[in-house]
Amino acid sequence: MKEALEKIRQSAINALNEAEDSKILEEIRVKYLGKKGEITAILKQMGKLSAEERPKMGQLANKVRAEIEESLSNAQTKIKAKMREQSLKNERLDVTLPGKKVKQGQLHPLNIVMSEIEEVFMGMGFDIVEGPEVETDHYCFEALNMPKDHPARDTQDTFYIDENTVLRTQTSSVQIRTMEKTKPPIRIISPGRVYRSDTADATHTPIFHQIEGLVIDKGVTMSDLVGTLDMLMKRLYGEDCKIRLRPHHFPYTEPSAEVDIMCFNCGGKGCSMCKQEGFVELLGAGMVHPKVLEGCGIDPEVYSGFAFGLGLERLTMGRFNINDLRLLYDNDLRFLKQF
Ligand code: DAH
To answer: Does the Cβ of 285 fall within 6 Å of ligand 1?
Structure first.
């Protein structure tokens, strides 16, 4: 029995020395130290021994078990260290490798022109205010002197949420919201999205952007309007740029005008882009109607003011020579990267 124990010890320790991973270690543990392992098998035979021999053998068996356990624990430590070394090797970072370039985005052409316009107006002391895109009939039409049956509503067919709630067709709604809340002097612009029930083509999309302007103070005249717009266009398109006003009708201004800008493409000579006119229509404007002022609690005998509504898409198309409005919304990077 003594020899048998010695053999077990030797072969267990040899096996442990050669083991290369923890799975093999576990197999060895079960084989020698497990409940059905070799040492247990020996202990089971102790009954056959004499009373004298039994404690000696028991002691020896425990010693062999302890030795194997110790070797096992040493082998486990060794294998763990080896595995750690290996994984460190595998995960090594080469900090000298060139990094991956992160693609940098850029401003959308509409945002570029929008920021330029905001900057010009901020330089003239205007505040920038925003209004809701889901608007009440009151702010979008009624308070702008366009009652329910007014024919001017037809040119701005919109998306109705319910009878009194619409997606705003124009940023002019913000004029009313501002005049109701603020006492003159008022000097604001209000950029934002507007909606009209239009089919998309080269010059229309159901969603587009306007920039509304409003100035109310004592003694404001039409020449202030012309001077402000002239300054804006010269800043955007250069000192040679000229504007032209044509009489027009808007229910919320009196007098009203449509404002054209000298064609960006031909410089006023006439070309296909301006339909041989030499000028391109850019915005609507006028002196705020006394009825609108009154409706907002501003005395038209004391105060006067001008307002305008610019189409951002049109300005952007002129600025960058873009011939189809839909390009601005296609999200095609080949197009967008050019600006
Ligand atoms: N709201 C007009 C439109 O959408 C543009 C406009 C015209 C705005 C005259 C104004 C204005 O503030 O006074 O076509």
So the answer is: yes
